Amino acid sequence: MSRSTRRQFLQMFGAASAAGLGVRPTFAQANGRIVIVGAGFGGATTARYLRQVAPGLEVTLIEPLSEIVTCPFSNDVIAGGTEIGAITHGLGPLTAAGVTLVQDRAAAIDPDARLVRLAGGADVPYDRLVLSPGIDFKPGAIEGYDDDVAQLMPHAWKAGPQTLLLRDQLRAMPDGGVVVMTIPANSFRCPPGPYERASLIAHYLKTEKPRSKIILLDGKDNFSKQPLFEEAWAALYPGLIEWIPFAQGGSLLRVDAASRTVETEFHTQSGDVVNVIPPQRAAAIAYDTGLTGEGDWCTVNQSTFESTIAPNIHILGDAAIAGAMPKSGFSAGSQGKFLAYALAALQAGDEPPAPALINTCYSLVAPDYGISVADVFRIGPEGTLAAVQGAGGVSPREASAEVHKREAAYARGWYASITSEIWG
Length: 424
Ligand code: FAD
Prior knowledge:
It is built from ten helices and 26 strands. The protein has helices at residues 3-22, 41-53, 74-78, 92-96, 161-172, 193-208, 226-236, 284-288, 329-347, 401-423, and strands at 32-37, 57-62, 67-69, 88-90, 100-102, 106-110, 115-118, 123-125, 128-131, 135-137, 178-183, 213-218, 241-244, 252-256, 261-264, 268-270, 273-276, 280-282, 298-301, 306-307, 313-315, 320-321, 356-366, 369-379, 385-387, 393-394.
């Protein structure tokens, strides 16, 4: 982003936070039961901020995991730059903030009775339900790929054991080995994530196994921050990364786990390490409740994130269609803060504020080489969240090493601040 563009962005960001969030009073008169499913970026942010702005609301958070391992910076764990402990966060601070934590899985929702049924059998009643359950993989989308095969050909698109599995496979691979990564068509969690991963794996290979290479089989013909990635790949990793787009037969059809082989329309490619990122849709609890309608993602009124299918259910984060906002942790956190104010207002009988949301997607192309894209989003003429013209920008092309080093530091700073805000 140029200096003037970044200044405009910061001015807009200031305006956005004042209009949407910063100067709002607390809603002491708001009362009722808010139940939240998922303690990831969207759900935990909503819970945390609800406790701050509406102390009269009962906030219950349902999450089966006792610790959250974040996808942000999991690519750096895979490439050996960060330990998994550094991206693992406990939920204690949420309970300390007054959130009631239910350590269980939401198994079903009855929107008419306003109940969440837990896997353990109990029912949790709500006045308003918030869903931020993330993604699941579309069953049967890739012939031959299932949960068992994912133990041989990891996806590592939900962080945790899969992250370590892919890291360990890379470590065990001999020098001269071939890494194959398959990337789905839009839309999916974290549009620049696969290319950040390819970059950091390339960095690892260049450093530790220089005779190796990485092949990307892609289900599309262009991708997020493509000119910036390609500029960096040419400079840092010449000949190491081969990208095969959709038009050249990049779209994955089937896998054969036994031979570690993937097949597209024009290619059959085996790899020493095969990372399959499967096509995705809203997580099962949202999909199975029918909240995606005929599609893969939940449709919401983007002014309140309330489902267009079931009243009193608000859906945010990766599971929801939020106009032009990408599926990112930054987006989910921004939506969570807004939603806390909107729910507090609704429960107090007030008009919810108009959303003014932000997102920045940072990517590391090497440990000290960062790039980013930033935007501000407001409701546009179509009634959907649209990027505000002139309020965002991308990193400049042909920037100095110093600029990219700073961007890498910004990425780490963003991670430290958002995770301490949510789980710290
Ligand atoms: P999640 O954070 O996935 O949280 C969902 C939670 O819901 C989980 O804890 C899950 O256990 C829980 N859950 C699911 N179903 C149920 C149920 N039935 N009952 C109870 N709980 C349930 N974003 C960025 O902004 N910056 C980055 O640098 C970045 N890097 C990424 C790198 C990779 C490799 C990947 C894969 C993603 C990256 N992302 C990044 C994207 C980011 O991880 C997601 O956009 C973000 O996690 C979405 O938040 P969420 O709340 O929708 O879902």
